[in-house]
Design brief:
36% helix
């Protein structure tokens, strides 16, 4: 277990929103799910995935590739 880490998932009633996020923001399923979790819980997305550049209403922090 990683310290200070929680496993979050969307409540069932939010699942239908994933399809909406896929269409309106043009994200694939896993990105739309992560976006939904961040939006629902008021979290920031930290990623290297540039697909999240399309997201405007959730804070996104892009990590740099150090390789």
């Amino acid at each position: 277990m990683i310290p200070n880490t929680s496993l979050l998932s969307l409540p069932e009633e939010m699942y239908k929103k994933i399809v909406e996020f896929r269409k309106t923001i043009n994200l694939d399923f896993d990105d739309a799910y992560q976006y939904g979790v961040a939006k629902y819980f008021g979290l920031k997305i930290v990623t290297m995935d540039r697909d999240f550049e399309k997201v405007k209403d959730v804070e996104v922090e892009f990590l740099q590739d150090v390789a």
